[in-house]
């Protein structure tokens, strides 16, 4: 099981990370695997801290997706703090507006981001 977060800043932009582990798509939502015995909200907070050093306010579950036997929980939240690259898994990070997301972002993630940015939470 994994978790990802659509994190907005005060300007209404979303935080995306360019991962080394996603060679074909690169840019995507921050997140990762939930550890054994860890609650999903605790896991996503830990992953975001480890990858970017920020905390999240108003964390809420947005969607649950499945891919075969894998379950991914998507959260929505607001950023508390200024993110910086804290993990060797991350090349770079950035804040992106609805019309200015990277070309290589996964289309399914882009659709979820658009829903949150359009207020469909």
Structure, described:
This protein is an alpha+beta fold. The protein is 20% helix and 40% strand. It is built from 2 helices and 7 strands; from the N terminus they run ββββαβββα. The radius of gyration is 13 Å and the shape is globular. The protein starts with a strand and ends with a helix. The model has no long low-confidence stretch (mean pLDDT 92).
Q: Please tally the β strands and state the result.
A: 7
Q: What's the average pLDDT?
A: 92
* CATH topology heading: Nucleoside Triphosphate Pyrophosphohydrolase
Strand content: 35-45%
Unreliable stretches (pLDDT < 50, length at least 5) are: none
Bin the helical content: 10-25%
CATH superfamily: Nucleoside Triphosphate Pyrophosphohydrolase
Anisotropy-based shape: globular
Question: Termini separation (Å)?
Answer: 22 Å
CATH architecture: Alpha-Beta Complex
Q: What structural class results from the helix and strand content?
A: alpha+beta
Arrangement of strands in the largest sheet: 4-1-6-5
The helix count comes to 2
**How many domains comprise the coordinates?**
1
Along the chain, the helix and strand elements come as EEEEHEEEH
Rg, rounded, reads 13 Å
In the CATH scheme, the class would be: Alpha Beta
> Largest beta sheet, briefly?
4 strands, mixed
